[in-house]
Amino acid sequence: MKVLKFGGTSVGSAQRMKDVAKLISGDRKIVVLSAMSGTTNSLVEISDYLYKKNPDGANEIINKLSQKYYGHIDDLYSTAEYKQKAKDHVNGIFDYIRTFTKDLFTLFEERVVLAQGELLSTGMMNLYMEEIGVNSVLLPALEYMRTDKNAEPDPVYIKEKLNALLEQENDADLYITQGYICRNAYGEIDNLQRGGSDYTASLIGAAIKASEIQIWTDIDGMHNNDPRIVDKTAPVRQLHFEEAAELAYFGAKILHPTCILPAKLNNIPVRLLNTMEPEAPGTRISNETEKGKIKAVAAKDNITAIKIKSGRMLLATGFLRKVFEIFENHQTPIDMVTTSEVGVSVTIDNRKRLDDIVDDLKKYGTVTVDEDMTIVCVVGDMEWDNIGFEASIVSVLKDVPVRMISYGGSNYNVSLLVKATDKQKALQALSNHLFNN
Q1: What digits encode the pLDDT tens for the residues 226-256?
Q2: Closest CA to 98 of 61, 135, 68
Q3: Which strand ranges, in their side-by-side order, compose the sheet holding 337-339?
Q4: Is residue 309's pLDDT more than 60?
Q5: What is the distance between the alpha carbons of residues 51 and 291, in angstroms, rounded to a whole number?
Q6: Which residue, among 176, 42, 163, 62, has the nearest Cα to 114 in the 3D structure?
Q7: What whole-number distance in Å separates Cα of residue 185 and Cα of residue 237?
């Protein structure tokens, strides 16, 4: 059985929902839906008014959003019976949201409000599938998707509860469920945060040993460079899980690096597909490596480089440990690291504690900070015995000042730190040389 996930833009209107219905009809499958595009933003705005103890402002947004849904209902359903069923479903959820305008509003209530977007979209889609004659069943994510006390998914619980629900409804042709939302270890409504609905799809795929997980968006797979600023980009048809994770971490927004981990561990291929061009092959991500190929380039912005130079700490035992402990104490992750006998350079993407970090580092040496930097990441089969890859990459950037180079920490990437003002020049030069020759 396959797991198919559709994002907010893919179910963002009645017509889009009808298009998705055509894609999910047929073979038995589980379909994961996000909230309709714009809904979560409105729910966040409602929550903001409620935090500020302004129920009138919240009710105004609730009324606007509910009217929008009534319009979707008129466009989506063709029979009076199902239009009424959908209105009852939508009214029930908006009436529930209105109850939060009367009481104390905290983070707990906000999570409940934010969960309603997925409940709206899945309920409407399930009713539409019923109306067109599909034997569809709604699987409530809040009955099987759970995180543990560390806010990480609980795979044993998920597998047990989800398979029990599927067994109860084993005569269904289609299962529809909510992405993003879950319960935490204390039974409270919560969410998966990182990766959202993509993470849900991957966790479900792992729990049922799916044959494939499909992530449907409005883009034709992962591209070999950023099409917003680089000419002549093209979709990458095959990626290793590690390559996809590197690209996602270093700026390819189509996928969150965390969300594909359950699929990788269970050896389930993930395919990125385009709802606007359903016939396009998209990008297939698996544990297979295409030997000797560079696949793509990505960039991560808003990077700060910090260099700590210390002559008196030359070859001193414990120097690196002390440096890294400072970043750990300030809960600031490091992206890149390069070292020499007299110092170390690192990069961070969170400047919140920068001043405190620099103050602490000055105990061990001279500190230099370079801001407004960009990490450019070249991804592919970067095994060290693939002669010439790193030299080819560096030579392309002969006209771009490179602050740091990281190679060898992974078999799948070479990372280079450049000024943000040189980002477009670096990306275009790499594309021209690596992909467009």
Answers
A1: 888 999 899 899 999 999 988 888 766 677 7
A2: 61
A3: 337-339, 343-348, 294-309, 366-380, 413-419, 402-407
A4: yes
A5: 54
A6: 42
A7: 39
